[in-house]
Each structure stands twice: as C-alpha cells, then as structure tokens.
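S1.2 Input.
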Amino acid sequence: MLTLSELKIAVIGLGYVGLPLAVEFGKKVPVVGFDIYQKRIDELKSGQDHTLEVSPEELAQSAHLTYSANLEDLKDCNFFIVTVPTPIDQVNRPDLTPLQKASETIGKVLKKNDIVVYESTVYPGATEEVCIPVLEKISGLVFNQDFFAGYSPERINPGDKVNTLTKIKKITSGSTPEVADIVNNVYASIITAGTYKATSIKVAEAAKVIENTQRDLNIALVNELSVIFDRLGIDTIDVLEAAGSKWNFLPFRPGLVGGHCIGVDPYYLTHKAEEVGYNPQVILAGRRINDNMARYVARATIKRMVKNNIDVTKATVGILGITFKENCPDIRNSKIVDVIKEFDQWGIKVAVCDPWADAEEVKHEYGIELVQVDTEHPVDSLVVAVGHNQFRNLSAQALRSYVVGEKPVFADVKSLFDREEIAEQGFTVFRL
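S1.3 Output.
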C-alpha cells in the first residue's frame, strides 16, 4: 500500500477547488497540477491566478508543484485527486460528463496500487456507480484489487480569505478500511483544522450534498418570509433582527442563491431520490422558491417604478454586481443574470457594472456588456445586487448621484445600506 513518503499527487482540474489544493500539497510533496486548458496552465506558470483564490506569493511558495496539460506528465503519479465541476443541465439533471472525462483521462495512466480520490460534488453512489466503471474499462484494472478509490468532498468557499482550505475540517473516505486510512493521512498532512473519516464513500458523498441542501432550504424559508412580509408592509431585516435576539434563532438572510454549489447540489440529491422511487417535496419546494427570487426582485423593482410614474419603456435600471457573491470574480450560475433577463422581458434597458467580473467572460457566457454606472453615466433606478466592498463603501449621497429623476427606486438586494439614509435621498427603497 502507498505510503506518504512515496506520494506523487496529480490534481485534475485547476479551478477554484483544485488550485488551492495543488498549491498546498505542492509545499510538501511532488504534485502535478493538470488541466485540459493550456491557457490556464500558461497563466499559472506565469505566477497568476485569475480566480484570485491563490496569490502570486502563494503560488511561488509551492516548490514541488508543476503544471501540465500533457497526459504523459501524469504517468508517474500514484494519488489522483479529481476536482472538476459537476454542473446541472437545462432541466436540472446532473451532468456527470466532466467527471466521466476526468476518469477516462486517469484510466489511461492508472497503475497497480494507485488511488483515485474524487472531490466533486455528486449524489450518493456516483463515485462507485459511474466513475469507477470508467476507470476499470479504460485501465483494464480491477477495482479494490489493482487500484483503489476515495471521496473527500470539497469545502472551498470562493472569495473567503478567512475560512481557507487548511482551516476547514475535511471529510475523507476510502474504498477499503486500509485505503480510508491512507486517504485520511494524506489530507491530514495539510489540513490544520483536522479531518473526519466517514464510514464509507457513500456517506461522504451524502454529507457533502446535504450541507448545501440544508443551507438552500434555510435561505428558501427566509426568502418566502421576505415575500410575505413585503405584502404585510413590514421590513424583513427588522423582523429577523428581532427574532435573532433569541440565542437559538438561526441567522439566515434572504437573497439570490446562485454559484456552483448551493443552487446546484440539491438537484443531485433529488435526482438520486427519484431514481430510487422517492419524490422529494421539501427540497424541491425550497429550490422553486430560491430559483424564483430573481424574477421577484425584478418585478418588485418594476412595480415601484410604475407607482413612481417612471416610464419603464424608456427607463434604464443600473445593476451593481453580476458575480454570484461579493468580492469574488466567479460568475458561474449567477442569479443576477435572471434579474437582468426579467428586466429585458419588460422592455427595460439595463446597465450592468461590476469591478470584479471579467468583461470578456461575462460577454462570452451571458452576452452582457459591462458598462459604467456612476455620476457621469446615470440611470433611472438602481439595483445593488452584490455586496462588493466597492459598493458597500458608497454613501447615500454618492448613490443618489448615480440616478436621475425625482422618485428613483433603490433595490438593496443584500440589505447593505441604512434604508432611512437612502430614503432621505429621495429613493423609494426595496430590500429583501
């Protein structure tokens, strides 16, 4: 069996999850960071990371890490970690294509006694039912006889510079008790927060998928409360802060649920549930609520614009932020895009500004041109959609200078600002 001193790790996929992992392991043991995109490899070799998850200084500290898009460079590796994305398709079914392709790649270089660990979020059973058969077919080797597997779900929080990889406890698992120990020891060598060894690969897979499902449902609850309270004429944040005076009240806030995790992972669990004959109700109800919040934000803004006698057919709404979360360039599954689409359907022009997003990527992925929204480029109403520091630091007076008209609407999706200060500037304020 593989020992730590013999380790040569390959990390497959150098995105938000894979790169921090490769960098951390590369401080201690030989690591090949593999990605199919040569452009990404060239970027990292130059000492830059456009995701901003790893600084140039941190990249330089990883003395044993090399980058490659060449399959030949994986042949000497014996511990493979798969960190490719697991998206959903247009009808919310799991798309395991990236995982299958990564498994095919590894299968071409897999040797006796090698270990393959998956970190990508999947439904319980996917590793052994989908990935392992691909490895066996391509390599010609027998699972748990010639090679072994593990699962250690990623817990990366993009943009978070406090709860980083090594400071978050890591779940580990293996296909045999001996392999589970090896996988656990490998991760324990870099995770200062410690590890938790699950009883099986399926348990580890299920633990990951319910982490985000639980958060999704809690956010769905406060989102539904926000809709109710708006109709009752009371402020949701006022209610939550009052309720939060009790020690065991959970401090969830309403908002748009996008990104590559919370808004996606529950569909993996519901897919598997339906496959085994159970129709999940609570989970899908939460998904429906959260998926509809973007439309709700746009319509609530439009409703107030109409009440203020703003001609919506000639109006421009400024949207501050398009990334899926604050202080992060990640635009994957951004629900702000759905807000924009709803405005478009009402014939309202939209001006989108985001200092964190890559303009070319936004144009390529969504067909949206990023522009300036400021004193020199004013709009008729404002939606502050993302809590970037650049937006949080704006004063009420500065925000008023961004708009024209007597009664502009100010939609504060993240409840970043003092509503009374904003209202004093002549805004009609809406917030979740």
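S1.4 Remarks. The mean pLDDT is 94.
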